[in-house]
Amino acid sequence: MLTVRMCFGDTCQPAKMRLYDTLMSMDIIQLDSALQEAVYRRRHLKADGRELFLYGYTRPDYEALSEPEGERIYGGELRRHPLRQDWSIYAAARQNRTYKPSSANDPLAPSAVGKPATEIPFETFELAVFDNRFPGMHPDTSAPQSQIALLNKDTANGKCEVIVYAPEQTGSLALLSQSQRSLLVQAWIDRYQAHFAAGQKFVLPFENRGDEVGVTLHHPHGQIYAFPFVPAVQQKAVDAFEGGYDLAKGIRDWTEDYSICTQGGVAAFAPPFARYPYEVWVAPIERQPGPWAFSREQLEGFAALLGDVTRRYDAFFGRSCPYMLSLQASPVGFDSSFHFTAQFYPILRSQDRLKYFACVEHATNVFTVDVMPEETARVLRKL
After folding, report:
1. Please, is 353 exposed, middle or buried when counting C-beta atoms within 10 Å of its C-beta (0-12, 13-18, 19+)?
2. How far is CA 54 from CA 162, 174, 273, 352, in A?
3. What is the pLDDT of residues 324-368, one digit of tens each?
4. Fold equal for 3-229 and 234-381
5. For residue 44, what is the enclosing H or E element?
6. Least confident piece of the model among 98-102, 220-224, 358-362
7. For residues 60-71, b (16+ Cβ closer than 10 Å) or e, as one string?
8. Do residues 39 and 31 lie in contact, with contact meaning Cβ atoms separated by under 8 Å?
9. Which terminal CB of the chain, N or C, has fewer other CB atoms within 10 Å?
């Protein structure tokens, strides 16, 4: 049985890319995991040429069902804002992406014999990752053909993936079992490794939850964007950490007023500089650049807190809490200073009142915060 080990950092980049090409040509492998149980990954090439990966504790040697080829979309282009000095993705094909299908037409469910194929052409699975059918970025996208005066354009040759947490159509991070959440973290780790090995510079796993955030598919899932550049927000974080900012010291010093809970060497806390009401971060107490560096205890603790924070939100608001969750790990080359965080941005300021990203926030990036972080920690700590 082949066990996969991969390195990080600029010095091993050519070796990583050769190993990536070799591993991606294989069907089923056992991953090198911090978990006690064996974790398997299967690569499947969909009929339209997109990659799909199945992850599980049992060997995913299921028989694939037939599926239509469909039209392949190769992403858009990048344009740089000359005043804000940041990049945006322009992808007109996404305007026609799937929008709130019925449960009977759930594209993220397992496929069934005799019925139209879903995105996952298997009758069962534990966790699945596949290339987004409507990507904003794609490794094979073409360079922009036309130029515009006073505008910098570039090729959007990143990658966009969908990660389906479980075959069930309903659920949440809180309702997944601990073993399912741990498998999710291990799948994230594998996708970080694959995208870095393929030459991407920054990888962002994220989840949008709830209609209020703009979710168009309600089957529990997240997405992964692999960027060919380091976005401006993450570059500022790199600069802060490289300049000596010590988040680990902050986590220790903020314990009394801002801590919510800890588990396995990982803390959930309300950062005193939070921009959203009830914003919560989850981070290892001692600095780690990303989940790939976690010990088994940290991985299990992180997985548990993802569910626990979601549970506390739902209990506090008395409903399924809409939020944005992003995993902020080190871009390539900064493992020695970067401190990983998972950041929850709920968009409720009370049970029936939304926190709008309104004009001042859009125009200046200066937020007005309606709930003090100390209060966030106090109320969520009690639940």
Report:
1. exposed
2. 12, 22, 39, 38
3. 999 999 999 999 999 999 999 999 999 898 888 889 999 999 999
4. yes
5. strand 40-45
6. 98-102
7. bebebbebeeee
8. yes
9. N
Q: What would the two tokens of residue 192 be?
A: 């970080």
CA distance 187 to 24: 15
The encoded tokens of residue 341 equal: 């965080």
Residue 301: what residue type? G
Q: Is 86 helix (H, G, I), strand (E, B) or coil?
A: strand
Alpha-carbon 79 to chain mean position: 23
**pTM confidence score:** 0.93
Residue 38 Cα distances to 25, 61, 129, 164, 185, angstroms: 21, 15, 18, 20, 14
CATH code for the structural domain at 234-381:
3.30.428.10
Both structure tokens of 52: 């799909």
Tell me the per-residue pLDDT of 111-162, one tens digit each, with 9 for 90 and over: 999 888 899 999 999 999 999 999 999 999 999 988 999 999 999 999 999 9
Residue 248: which of 373, 338, 376 has the closest Cα?
A: 338
